Amino acid sequence: MSKLPFFKQIILLSVILSLVSFIFPQNSFSLSIDEQIAAVSKQISDLEKAIDPLKKETTSLTQKIKNAKASIANVENQVKQIGQELIETEADLEVQKTLLDQRVRRLYKNNKKFDPLAIFLSSTQNSDVIRQFSWFQAVINQDIRLISSLGQQITNLNTNKKNLDAQKVNLAALKKNLESRFGFLEGEIKKAEDYKAELSKKQQDLIAAKTAMFNTSVGDVSTSTDPASRADYNPGFSPAFALFSFGAPHRKGMSQYGAYGRSKNGQNYQDILKAYYGDIRIDTVDMPGSINTSAGSLPFEDQYLVGIAEMPASWGENGGMEALKAQAIAARTYALSYVGWRLSNKSASGSICVTEACQVYKSSRYSSPGLWKSAVEATRGQVIVSNSTGDIFSTMYASTAGGSIYSYSSLGHSTPQIWDTSCGSQSCWPNDAWEKKSDSAWYYKGWYRTRGNDTCGRSHPWLTQSEFSDIINAVLYYSKTKDYSHLSQIDSGGCFGGNDPSAWSRDELARQVGSHGGPVSSVNSVNVNYSTGGYTQEVRVETNKGGFTFSAEDFKTVFNLRAPGAIVIKSALFNIEKK
């Protein structure tokens, strides 16, 4: 079969789905084989006429094709069963034919043996003779019935054999016809699945590129703020919508800005570390002389730790000295855990990288450490030990968690899930989060720049009414279909390799979502609900099509795909503002 254009392939895929539904209904096996074959043949003919207007997209095609083949196999089994029954009947009739001659001869003899008129006129009318006559007459009548039935069975057998042969021919032709289509369609389905997989990878790459804008600690990123990323920025149009993330990236372990806020409030480094890592103690132990890194073997305390560039040394001059000490102990423990050093063996064979993928070490920090060196020396040999395991564990940390810290487990130790606020609960969040008190630039931020600081044609993260309505349509479509194959951004701003050619335009998306509650053309209000677990749980919008409530997780996924340029939601804890 010659290669068809893609839209015709979709048409044929639609045909096969319709064909599957028509081949054999649930009660079809109560029909005769001829009726089933006739029904299928008619449906094929009808469907051929309907090919042109069919342009529906389909799902689960491979399974449906398998179901169709299974239906044909069931009919084949029926035909085989009928054929076997006919063989058995034919064998039985062969035996009956042998007996038939005997019954015919016996019937002939029995008919000649007694003369009913002679018995009636007989003067004796012996009762035994009469009974014998009655018995022979019954035998004669039985033979007559058997002979007649056998003759009918033979006639039916010959007729059924002819019908069966015809059914086999028809079924073989039907199977060949369908299998030829299946063969073509399966190849096209494979191509479509490969293409879909390619789209999925493109979308994953897009999200990865967007979310890679910030994935490090405060020490490796400029602390300067971007006025356009703040909620009080005026985009110059109204209504305007923007997504603001609370913190980034992983929100586990110690918040560096949270530690800074706590330190400025008078907490010491032990209190800070216990707040973030839970049931722990700070022990002073013998340290290894050196550590293997991707930059070579370095003296552990006197060079490697002094060169850790994960927190600004200047914080020590502004009330953050206890935060620097907490960072020094967390960094020391993290490095030892990473290379496999344990209290029990005090040896390690692993190596640690010197980038943000592990823990940042810079020779420039080592050359000019400032008060950071004082924090390292003041905590020399101190590590974080789990009270539950009696050993160290991976002490994760990051710049900003948005006021809520996730729990995580490492080497048998579990950290707590906390609201990182002055009241110690969600009740005073978000205004009294320690990170907000320490003025983290990432506490509540709208993200619209790439990691390389490219704005992708946008000067702020705010969206127009039509842009935000388009995103709502995308989320609405996904919430109903669980399909985001065509929901990638249509305005990349020249970033991320350009637009995905499979992405639907706004008009096409509006048309597609028409049967799923849309299309939405205006959003009147938007609200979010937060979970006590530290994430946004629901997004509620009021639109010209009514109100919709979406899973925040679905909303975040689709938003990050569809939003223009590098605009992205960085955290599962986010808010939506309208001005």
Ends apart, CA distance between termini:
58 Å
Percent helix: 40-55%
Low-confidence stretches: 1-30, 47-59
Q: What's the SSE pattern?
A: HHHHHEEHHEEEHHHHEEEEEEHHHEEEHE
- What proportion of the residues form beta strands (DSSP E)? 5-15%
Strand order of the largest sheet: 12-13-14
Tell the overall outline: elongated
- Derived from helix and strand composition plus strand pairing, the structural class reads mainly alpha
Give the total of domains. 3
Please tally the β strands and state the result: 15
Mean pLDDT: 81
Largest sheet: 3 strands, antiparallel
**Tally of helical runs:** 15
Radius of gyration of CA atoms, rounded to a whole number: 41 Å
Features:
mainly alpha, 579 residues, disordered N terminus, 3 domains, 3-stranded antiparallel beta sheet, two-stranded antiparallel sheet
What can you tell me about this protein's structure?
The protein is mainly alpha-helical and 579 residues long. It has helices at residues 6-23, 33-49, 61-113, 116-121, 127-211, 256-264, 269-277, 300-304, 321-339, 363-367, 371-378, 434-437, 465-481, 506-512, 552-562; strands at 241-245, 254-255, 280-284, 290-293, 296-299, 382-386, 397-398, 404-405, 409-410, 413-414, 418-419, 523-530, 536-543, 546-551, 574-578. It is elongated, with a radius of gyration of 41 Å.
